[in-house]
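FAQ: What does a ligand-bound record look like?

Like this one, built around zinc ion:
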Amino acid sequence: MSIISTVARWTTVLALFAATVVLPGTAVGQDKVKYVGAHHVALECGLSLFFDDLSNRLRLVSEDTEAVVTPGLDVAMLDCEIVNLQSRVMLKRGEVQIPESFVEMLKKRLEEKRAQRRKKEEAAQAQGKKLRRVVLDPGHGGRFPGACANGLQEKDINLSVSLKVKDMLEEQGVEVLMTRERDVHLSEDHKTDLELRCDFTNSKKADIFVSIHANGCTNPAATGFEVYVVRPHRELNDRVEKAAREAPVTGEELGGRAKRATEIDKIVWRALLMAYFEQSKCLAEKISGKLDTAIADNNRGVLESNFRVIRNSRCPAVLVEMGFMSHRATAAKLKTDAYRRKIARGIAEGILAFKKKYDATCGFTKPDNEDGDK
Ligand SMILES: [Zn+2]
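The answer part, i.e. the structure of the complex:
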């Protein structure tokens, strides 16, 4: 029942109509009303044409709009609403001719629907870029105690503070995953233990990764906290290769069928890793600033390092050194639940401040004109 199949049938009634063509696809009827050919409308507006032989109706259809006209009638339907036309729909030279005023109405409706779709798509896009999932990594654990000083083992403080950060973030509706929630190592081998933390983060598609540590130093006077980000260009080519191989973007597009990293994967991952670096710096600054307020210790700032866990986590990633256990006064404070809670508060507030910026800018993908929460 396509328009093509009906052309022959209509040729018998063409003599009933006479009109002068003034523009391609446009005609003027005897009543001086301007008409536009249905094919022309379909082409111009990207609509599909269907003709129903039984009802003698022509439908012009897009994914969410439908116009129905009937030759000989002066009413039409637009999205199931009846529209009175200024003149009858005509047949001329085997083509349905539609009054121009209705065509204009149809174009307006299509534009409105397009705008609605754009709005929905933008909202969905923004929705997809909210910071939702945080991976917290309490450093060391099990057979790897980390630094030991003044009767403290680093692995215990790291876990204690991380669990408090987890609770605080969850209270704010953020999903938190932990690389460990008990005193365990992830592998007997130290290097593998660290790699597994990155693998966990990457497999869970974390939005950010925060590794939590405490410092130890042979100089007992060393004091303060610091937040690390990766050195952006250190081993960048290796990291790009690894990411492109392990998480091929083109592979995903092809349903995971890609067997090796393509140049496109590498280009995408190079850009992504540099974007993550910028986001990591921002996250580190937020945490550093909030920790400064929370614990009022010596702020050693945001520093760059090549720590494996932040180097191989494929998302914004930072490593927090909360304070020096080797510093006697700091160690005494670190033994108290109240001080650990203060540290946790600083880290959680830093993450939430970053989230606020991340959410407002869809992950920094649109210009950020104001940042009132430095
Ligand atoms: Zn450590």
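Follow-up question: can I read anything off the structure? Yes, for example: The first helix runs from residue 3 to 11.
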